[in-house]
């Protein structure tokens, strides 16, 4: 079996996991570069990083973090030139619980969390995807804190809609663990102070089986296009997303 390589992060100073979805094989072609960037939180970007992202084409930023996360680490993109910044919280209640040191009732695995997100966070997913579909020019950067979980599920939906093979989607997801290792080391220490009972180990990993669980749930719901229709996207929005992903 050929080795599947995930896209490398952009050479930015203030993030670890900012990656283009472009270049992955999709049917007879490939996902277009310069249309979608997945990322960890852009909260420490200097002028050089901001200018680099602007030159890359970023004109819309979608922040998937909770309100509390946004307050603790505001996005550096907010207010920069004409970049539009939107907040679409995913898993807001879960993040509030972690911040308060409450770990009881957390899903058994990150894969179970992703399945729950697909089932229970449909309005927020639909809002984020609708914003993406409405972005006619430039590149969309979407992010959570680590660019792994919430960002990973949204990336799965986009890549699945484009027709990217599941093994490639899993490899794209799995790359976050190594990319984010320096950040996770600091985050683990901070969270363990808040939650003496311990943080699930999966919070700091991107094991392939977690994304495989999410993909299995997506198949159960009829695949990407059927899922997007079910959560409220119009045919026009789905077509616009596919065109952004695939049209040169």
From TrEMBL:
InterPro entries: Prot-tyrosine_phosphatase-like, Tyr/Ser_Pase_IphP-type, Tyr_Pase_dom. Residues 112-159 form the Tyrosine specific protein phosphatases domain. GO terms for molecular function: phosphoprotein phosphatase activity. It comes from the Bacteria. This is Tyrosine-protein phosphatase. The lineage of its organism: Bacteria, Bacillati, Bacillota, Clostridia, Eubacteriales.
């Amino acid at each position: 079996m050929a080795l599947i390589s995930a896209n490398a992060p952009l050479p930015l100073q203030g993030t670890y996991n900012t990656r283009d979805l472009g270049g992955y094989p999709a049917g007879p072609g490939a996902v277009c570069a310069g249309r979608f960037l997945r990322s960890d939180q852009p909260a420490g970007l200097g002028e050089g990083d901001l200018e680099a992202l602007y030159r890359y084409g970023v004109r819309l930023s979608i922040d998937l973090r909770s309100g509390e996360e946004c307050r603790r680490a505001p996005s550096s993109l907010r207010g920069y030139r004409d970049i539009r910044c939107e907040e679409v919280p995913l898993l807001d209640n879960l993040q509030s619980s972690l911040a308060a040191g409450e770990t009881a009732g957390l899903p058994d695995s990150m894969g179970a969390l992703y399945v729950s997100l697909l089932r229970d966070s449909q309005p927020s997913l639909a809002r984020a995807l609708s914003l993406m579909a409405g972005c006619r020019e430039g590149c969309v950067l979407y992010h959570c804190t680590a660019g792994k979980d919430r960002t990973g599920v949204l990336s799965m939906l986009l890549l699945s809609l484009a027709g990217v093979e599941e093994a490639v989607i899993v490899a794209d997801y799995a790359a976050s663990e190594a990319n984010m290792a320096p950040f996770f080391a600091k985050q683990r220490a901070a969270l363990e102070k808040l939650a003496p009972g311990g943080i699930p180990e999966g919070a700091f990993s991107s094991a392939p089986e977690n994304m495989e669980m999410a993909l299995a749930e997506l198949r159960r719901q009829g695949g990407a296009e059927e899922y997007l229709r079910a959560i409220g996207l119009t045919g026009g929005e789905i077509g616009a997303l596919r065109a952004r992903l695939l049209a040169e």
